[in-house]
Each structure stands twice: as structure tokens, then as C-alpha cells.
Design brief:
The protein has one domain: Rossmann fold (3-Layer(aba) Sandwich). It has 11 helices and 8 strands. Helix 5 runs parallel beside helix 6 and helix 7 packs across helix 11. The structure holds NADP nicotinamide-adenine-dinucleotide phosphate and 2-acetamido-2-deoxy-beta-D-glucopyranose (4 copies).
């Protein structure tokens, strides 16, 4: 039954988009590329949905240990999956820092948590807009002045699709919000992460990527998609870049013998506002989405697992889905591509030594 709904919804979306595109005034090459991406996304998405359905119940009961004394920083903790991550971390007695664009919405999240009667933990909210390198630097300075140790960094904030847009720094907005902004944030906070880690209890960097990385590639000649913008290709590129970076950073930390573990993950296909404005939301009936997608609470589980589970202590550098270590795509292992992207990102940001200044 679920298989049938997934196939039907996917087919309708591909058809409708193909028809719409044929009537648009885009060049035929662009139309073919968009349709190709649409088909591949539907295949990858359907596979991920099935995986979630098969594995989801097991992980609703995933064991998440307490985190008393730990400080966790999450980007985008005031909406979507992030809210549920914050709530569960506070329940586990963690001190949570939320970086988000609207500080009062972050504070509202904390009020709601206290109103639910959860007395443990704490939440502090600071302004962060990943679409502004200046904002990221101010945010990091603020955090560094208040905290000497950060045990968990959760790079969660993200943006999907949408019309072509460049940030104030001149980068395609998904590339900067999902990848480059987190690259800079991780660079700036690495000293505090290193300070918090211990030999047998490493600090952790958790990158919320996506199964969409499977269809991604890195286009160094046109990283901002100025020549031909395909929103889904740009999203996939940004999510692949996160995983490449995770893997590279893992090697770097190992070389330095630094007590920092890194994980990247796919949270599942989750019913959040991330899909607002997509054809999926416009065409698929609400009941089908509720039946097939994870709730934000379920989407938070793998992130919490990566943040706190003892079982992962010796598994830095892995990619998780449904609390399960999974192989990412072949490209993610390419050390050539990892190195190239790492050097390229450093040069874009004017960073000489990563994590040191
Ligand atoms: N939902 C899914 O099915 C799915 C699947 C795979 C991966 N993911 C990934 O999971 C993560 C969370 O997604 P979600 O589903 O919770 O999406 P969501 O409900 O749309 O929330 C997105 C979050 O990102 C923040 N954000 C966006 N742009 C930002 C910016 N410029 N600066 C700071 N924060 C910004 C938002 O904060 P504001 O409140 O300031 O807007 C919000 O907290 C994303 O990385 C997404 O790619 C989601
Ligand atoms: C910020 O969040 C608060 C609380 O959720 C909300 O009332 C307000 O409208 C938001 N402001 C903006 C500019 O979105
Ligand atoms: C996570 O990805 C960001 C880019 O999105 C990168 O800057 C950061 O170093 C990565 N961290 C890890 C541990 O992979
Ligand atoms: C991780 O590896 C160390 C060193 O080999 C070992 O002492 C420790 O018990 C391992 N931890 C877990 C949770 O497996
Ligand atoms: C923490 C936990 O229980 N994770 C489980 C999620 O589902 C997979 C697949 O069944 C299990 O192998 C994991 O152990």
C-alpha cells in the first residue's frame, strides 16, 4: 500500500513538472536537466521513504543517554526538527545554545519546554544568520566570550530549493546556508570543541546532511550555479559538500590526535516546513504525507543518537541514517575531492589554518 502511494505520488510529480517545464521559456537543455534531476530525486526520495518506514519503529526506542554537564550548540534550533532536538537535549540535562535568526522564537521554544514541566537542562539563544559571514563571526565571538568548552556542535540549519538567490557575501544561498556557513562556524569553534573532548569521551560535530547528497556533485567551475540554476542540484551539492567535509575533518582530527569525533547523517524524510513551496507539498495529499513521512520527533532521533550515544564513541567519520551506520555515496570517500573542496572552501573564506587562528 505504502509502496503504491509513493510510486503514484512520484509519478504524478514528475509528469506535472515535465509538462510545466515544457511550457516554460527555458532553453531545452535546461529543461532536460531539470526533468532528469526530478526523476532521480523521486527515485532517491522513494528509496529513503521506504527505508524510514522499514526501520522507523526500531529507532523510536533508540537509547539516548543523559548528557549532564555537556554544552551543545545547534544551528536552526527554533523550527522544524531542531526544536525536537533541543527539547530532548534539555530533557537529558544538556545546556543548549541555539543559534537562530529570530532570537525570540528560540526563547519561545525554551518557554514551551519549561511549560511542559521539563525542569532539567538550560537553553540560551543568540542571533545567527548563516547567510551572512559577518553574522557568523559575531555569533562565534559571542559564544567564545561566554563558553570555553563546547561538547557537541550540531550543524542543523538548512534551506532547500527556492528561487535563485545570492547571499550578501555573493554565494548561492543553499551553498552558504547549508555548507559554507557551517564550515566557517566549525572553523571558529574548533578550539572550544577540542577543549571539551577527552580521550574516552570525545566532543562531537554532527552534520545534518541528507540522502539528497546521493545525487550531488561539486561543480568547481560554477559553484554558485550562475550559468544554469537547478535548485535541486544546488541542494544536493551543498549536502554532498557537508559529507565530504565531515570525512576530511575526521582525518584531520585523527592526524592531530584531537579528541573530536565527526558524524554526518540523514534524519529521514520528515514533515517540516522545509518542503513548503515544493511540488510535493502542492500535489501530494496531506494524509499521504502524514502517513509516509517521519514526524519532527522521529526525525530528531538520529541527531540525538549521533550527539550522545556511547555506542558511536569509536565510530567517528561515519554517516548515519535511522541510527544506523550506512555507506554514503562513493564520491564522499574520494580523498581527492575532499582535499580539493577543503582547500577551495578555505580560500573562499580566507582561512589559512583550519581551526586555528
Ligand atoms: N525535512 C526533511 O525531510 C529533511 C531531510 C533531509 C535532511 N534535512 C535537513 O535537516 C535540517 C533541518 O531541516 P528541517 O526539516 O527542520 O527544516 P525547517 O523546518 O525548514 O527548518 C530549517 C531550520 O534552518 C534554519 N535556517 C534556515 N536558513 C537559515 C539561515 N540563513 N541562518 C540560520 N538559520 C537558518 C531555520 O531557522 P529560521 O527559524 O531562522 O528560519 C530553521 O530552524 C536541514 O539541514 C535539512 O537540510 C531535512
Ligand atoms: C519572531 O518570533 C516570535 C516568537 O515566535 C514571533 O512572534 C515574531 O513574529 C517573529 N519575528 C519575525 C520577524 O519573524
Ligand atoms: C560539517 O559541515 C560543515 C559544512 O557544512 C563543515 O564546515 C563542518 O566542518 C562539518 N563538520 C563535520 C564534523 O563534518
Ligand atoms: C573505544 O576504544 C577505546 C580504545 O580502544 C576503548 O578503550 C573503549 O572501550 C572503546 N569504547 C567503546 C564505547 O567501544
Ligand atoms: C539505537 C537503535 O536502536 N538504533 C536502531 C535503528 O534501527 C536499526 C535497524 O533496525 C538498528 O540496527 C539500530 O540498532
Amino acid at each position: 500500500m505504502e509502496l503504491f502511494i509513493i510510486a503514484a505520488v512520484g509519478l504524478v510529480i514528475v509528469l506535472v513538472i515535465s509538462i510545466l517545464l515544457l511550457f516554460s521559456d527555458k532553453p531545452i537543455k535546461h529543461i532536460i536537466a531539470e526533468i532528469k534531476y526530478e526523476i532521480i530525486y523521486n527515485v532517491v526520495g522513494s528509496k529513503a521513504l521506504l527505508e524510514d518506514i522499514v526501520l522507523r519503529e526500531k529507532n523510536d526506542s533508540a537509547e539516548i543517554p543523559m548528557g549532564k554537564g555537556k554544552v551543545a550548540l545547534i544551528t536552526g534550533g527554533a523550527r522544524g526538527i531542531g526544536v525536537e532536538v533541543v527539547k530532548k537535549l534539555v530533557e537529558r540535562d544538556v545546556h543548549v545554545i541555539i543559534g537562530c535568526r529570530n532570537v525570540s522564537s528560540g526563547e519561545k521554544v525554551f518557554q514551551d519546554i519549561r511549560q511542559e514541566g521539563i525542569e532539567k537542562g538550560d537553553v540560551k539563544v543568540f542571533p545567527l544568520d548563516l547567510a551572512s559571514l559577518q553574522s557568523i563571526k559575531s555569533f562565534a565571538n559571542m559564544i567564545k566570550s561566554k563558553y570555553s568548552k563546547i561538547h557537541i556542535l550540531i550543524n542543523n540549519a538548512g534551506k532547500m530549493f527556492g528561487p535563485y538567490m545570492e547571499t550578501e557575501d555573493g554565494f548561492e544561498s543553499q551553498f552558504q546556508t547549508n555548507y559554507l556557513g557551517h564550515f566557517l562556524l566549525t572553523h571558529l569553534l574548533l578550539p572550544e570543541l577540542k577543549a571539551a573532548g577527552e580521550e574516552n569521551s570525545k566532543s562531537r560535530i554532527v552534520n545534518v546532511s541528507s540522502c539528497a547528497h546521493l545525487v550531488g556533485d561539486i561543480d568547481f567551475d560554477d559553484i554558485n550555479f550562475r550559468k544554469q540554476y537547478i535548485a535541486s542540484a544546488a541542494y544536493a551539492q551543498s549536502k554532498l559538500a557537508q559529507i565530504l567535509f565531515s570525512n576530511h575533518l575526521h582525518s584531520l582530527m585523527k592526524q592531530e590526535n584531537a579528541p573530536v569525533a565527526v558524524y554526518s547523517l540523514h534524519p529521514g524524510i520528515v514533515d517540516t516546513e522545509l518542503f513548503d513551496g515544493t511540488y510535493l507539498k502542492k500535489l501530494a495529499p496531506g494524509w499521504a504525507i502524514r502517513m509516509l513521512f517521519k514526524t519532527p520527533q522521529q526525525g530528531a532521533v538520529t541527531i540525538l543518537y549521533a550527539s550522545l550515544s556511547h555506542k558511536l564513541e569509536n565510530h567517528s567519520g561515519t554517516y548515519l541514517s535511522n541510527c544506523h551506520i550506512m555507506p554514503p555515496c562513493e564520491l564522499a570517500y574520494s580523498t581527492n575531492l575532499q582535499d580539493k573542496l577543503f582547500e577551495y572552501s578555505k580560500s573562499l573564506l580566507g582561512i589559512k589554518l583550519f581551526g586555528k587562528e
